[in-house]
Amino acid sequence: MSGHIRRRGENSWEVKFDLGRDPLTGKRITKYRAFKGTKKEASAELVRLINSAHRGDYISILRKRQ
Q: Could you give the CA distance from residue 45 to residue 51 in angstroms, rounded to a whole number?
């Protein structure tokens, strides 16, 4: 699994990481998270998300758009 951090604004970052491959389609599963704080904090969040996915306790929160 891998990840990436991209600047979105003054103190805003986009954290992108892979969850592996979909067993049915074989396509990569990529998740994005918005994060506010420093780059160092965003990097720590990326590590936390990747470790959570490795342990198998990552929970994806789906939000409905209105």
A: 10
Q: What is the pTM of this model?
A: 0.78
Domain count, the chain: 1
What is the domain range of residue 37? 3-55
Q: Strands (DSSP E) along 1-66, which ranges?
A: 3-7, 12-21, 28-36
Mean pLDDT by 10 residues, the chain (66 residues): 89 92 90 93 93 82 53
Q: Do the domain assignments include residue 63? A: no
Residue 66 within any structural domain of the chain: no
